[in-house]
Structures are given as structure tokens and as C-alpha cells.
Amino acid sequence: MSVDKNNSVRVHCCLQMIMKCGINTYQTEITSRLLQYHDIDVDSLRVSMQNFETDTDFPVRHVKFPGWLAFSNHETPLSRKIISCAFELVRPFISFNKLTGCNPEDVFVFFDNAMTALPIKGKVITVLHDVIALHSEFPHNKGPFRKGAEHAVKKSAKIVTVSEFSRKDIAEQLKIDPSKIDVVYNAVDAEKFSREKTSAESLRALREKYGLPEKYILHLSRYNPRKNVKNFIRAYSMLPDKLKEEYGLVITNPNDEVRKFAGECGVSSRVIYVDDISDSDKPGIYQLSSLFVWPSFMEGFGLPILEAQASGVPVVSSNTSSMPEVAEDSAVYFDPYDVEGMSQAMAKCLDDEVLRGELVAKGYENLKRFSWDKSAKKFHDIIKNL
Fold it and tell me: Which residues pair with 61 in a beta bridge?
């Protein structure tokens, strides 16, 4: 089928250079599928002074320009005061359209919690994955984040987020009409995490590569106090001795504080720390585990829950924010502030093989609610209805 570019909507998917995480997955999965629609003309755009090798399977147009100027609300190694002064000096002479060669009739999609701080002409969609940074108990870059989020709300024709929880939270925190916010869920590539794609030989090699125990409980994330790793370690330390002897604990991307805390809890010898798991190794790390625990205090979505379920692993999860929305009845829940309750939930699953099997079956069923194709279709419809 040919594409009539004269009648299609020109859409600039603005991909920011961010570490491998849920946001990176979201922007690449959505963009790759929008490229398949014939009634929109998608330009995959990245603004940066850095040379880079794209990690996408689709072409990305690279505009060389200082990222701090295009997106001045993001953290940067330069002094904020210097950046602010420089930005105000150049703002009258530059626009995002001029910078990127885009027309004022175009649609711009910003995926990373903030739109450009430069003047821009066109219809803008900004994805705010969450506004957890605005909660007093999880302060992180709060001032700049609020400034960027408020700017996005003011200038965007539509705000997109990844869960009903985040939709409600954004509306409350930023005092906006919830009708301006649409929900487009995350998803997982179930085939990538399928056990049928992983050989016993590759799993043995993976166990040896990372020094993984025969049986283990897994927590997979980047360290952040919000992820509640300390309470997770404490909950593990409270398990009956026979369970600690049978199951080790695998934690990814720890810092020195986490390692020290495990020592204080007396479980250092049972904890394996894994840094920088490659994308290709991640499915096997999940599949080798006996139980996946997601103890986070607050999440906009909680993508690892679905990754674990796609890997055929039972899930025990925090009962706050978006987690019950994502997992529904396919997980055993606990209060993340209740360490004893967390430990009991873990023990309940580890002691009950039948329950673990039921959770795996429910996990596979739960996955059917989420699809990158369905999410991209919803995003397409939002673009067309602007």
C-alpha cells in the first residue's frame, strides 16, 4: 500500500537519549508501531550533540543541537544558573521548529515526562509516565520536574500517561481536568520472554555467568529509595531459616548502602548482586528465578511485573498505586510499609507449589490485557483526533 504523504499527518516522535528503562522501552515500542500506519507520516527524531549508534530497529533522524537547550528542564552536569542564563539569551532567536526543520502544522510527541522548553508551533502530545517526584515522601529533582510538568500541561494539546493511577495522580498534583489525560498502557514482548525461546543450555550458561544460586527470589530494577529494596531485604531476613537456606536472593544494580544493609540484616552470604544485565540476558534471569517480588512504594506502572509474568514466574507485589491495576488477581499482595506482611507473603508462595502454579497461569492470562500493538493503535487514534 502506498502512502500519500500530502494527505497524511506529519508526526515527530521526539526520542530522548535515556538509559535503558521503562521509558526507553515505551518510546521505541510505540514509535516503531506508529511507523506502520499509512495515514500518518512518522519522523523519529533525536536532538543531541552526541554522536550515537541507534539502538532501534528503525531509522532515527539525528539533529545535532545541545540537549540542555532543547530540554532545559532536565538534569544536566552544567550549573543550572548558567543554563538558565544561556537559555534566556537564545530563546528569542530559536524555536524547536527551526531547530528541527519541522512545520507548524505538524504533531510533536515527547515521551520523557517533559516537552521542549523552546517555543514550538504545532500540536503537542507529552507523555507524563508519572508525577511521583511531586510527592513529598519521594523528593527527587522536585522543582525542575514540577516546572517541566506544568509547562507540558500548559502547552500540550493532550497529556498521555501509562495507568489510571497516574492519570488520577497527575490531575490531582497538577490541578488539571482528567479529560485532558489519556491512558496508553505499557506492555511486554511476550515472545521475547517466553520460556520456549530459551534453551536449557543457555540458562546453564547464564547461571554460571552471573553466579546465580539454584533457587532464588528476584528483585530486578535500578536502585532508588522508592523501590523499597531495604524493606525487601529485611523481609527476606525474616523468612524461616529453611526457606533462606533453600532460596537465595538476587538483587540487581545495588549501591553500597544496600550491600551494607544486607550485612546488618545478617543475610550477606545469601544475597547475589548483579549489575548491568544485558537486554538479551534479562529473560533468562527472570526464568531462572523461583519468585519475583516487586516491593515498590509507588509506581506509575511497574513494567517488571509483566516481564516476570511473561517469563512464567509467580509474582508477589506491593498493593499500592498502580500495581493492583497492572496485576489484578494475578499476584499475591502486601503493604510495602509492613515488612512482616511482605515476608509472610513471600513465605506463603514459597511454601505452596500449587499457589505458585496458579499465579503463573493467572500471569499468562493477565498479559492478554496488554499489547504494544493495542497501545500503539490507541496512540495513533489520539494523534488523529487532535
Answer: 45
Cβ atoms of 86 and 94 closer than 8 Å:
no
pLDDT tens digits for range 188-242 = 999 999 999 899 999 999 999 999 999 999 999 888 889 999 999 999 999 999 9
Q: By C-alpha distance, which of 187, 193, 179 is closest to 162?
A: 187
Q: pTM value?
A: 0.91
Q: Where are the beta strands (DSSP E) in the chain?
A: 9-14, 40-47, 61-63, 107-110, 123-127, 158-161, 181-183, 216-219, 248-252, 271-274, 291-294, 315-318, 332-334
Separation of CA 285 from chain center: 18
R_g (Cα) of the chain, nearest Å: 22
> For residue 295, how many other CB atoms are within 10 A of its CB?
24
CB-count exposure of residue 230 (10 Å: 0-12, 13-18, 19+): middle
User: In this structure, are residues 140 and 178 in contact, taking their beta carbons and an 8 Å threshold?
Assistant: no
